[in-house]
Amino acid sequence: xxxxxxxxxxxxxxxxxSGPDWIHxxxxxxxxxxxxxxxxxxxxxxxxxxxxxxxFPWIAETALKIRKCRFMVxxxxxxxxxxxxxxxxxxxxxxxxxxxxxxxxxxxxxxxDDLRDLPLVDRKSKLAQLLARRPExxxxxxxxxxxxxxxxFDAACRMKLEGLVSKHRLRRYRPKTxxxxxxxxxxxxxxxxxxxxx
Length: 198
Known about the structure:
The chain is of the alpha+beta class. It folds into 2 domains: 70 residues, 2-Layer Sandwich (Dna Ligase, domain 1); 112 residues, D-amino Acid Aminotransferase, Chain A, domain 1 (2-Layer Sandwich). It is built from 4 helices and 11 strands, in the order ββββαβαββαββαββ. Strands 3, 4, 5, 6, 7 and 8 form a 6-stranded mixed sheet that branches. Strands 1-11-10-2-9 form a 5-stranded mixed sheet, covered by helices on one side.
């Protein structure tokens, strides 16, 4: 399950899509990562394939507590502040690695089955089932669907969040055709930050 593959990456746009087939998630400010469990072995891999298992122990420990034994979860590694908002500076400092959690938004493999050809909405349903009784450390990305997108983006900006990622509910996990769109809050520090390429 650890062989290299391309992540689906959101394309930057200026307008949030509002059609009925779009799912909208708050954009957390952290590091993209994969959590891979194969029986008692857990790996946390960065976007470029670096092994970060040692760096984020809470996520690794949580993965071992999940009832299913083989899975691959795609998500964002974050440190949350007291208000539950992602704090990139705290994550980047390496001083609070033991507090980092995974904001899980996709499930790519489950019990040996490659799920990438399933529609996103089905993958999300299976992810919710996988993490239904999860301990803290890995949490499911909440989302809204449909015409609410633009209004949700305005609300995210008022709350000083980084922005939204919108995804077409019927697309497979294929980097060139996944239809993921990110719209950033121009007032958020992440808008002008040079992102580290891990």
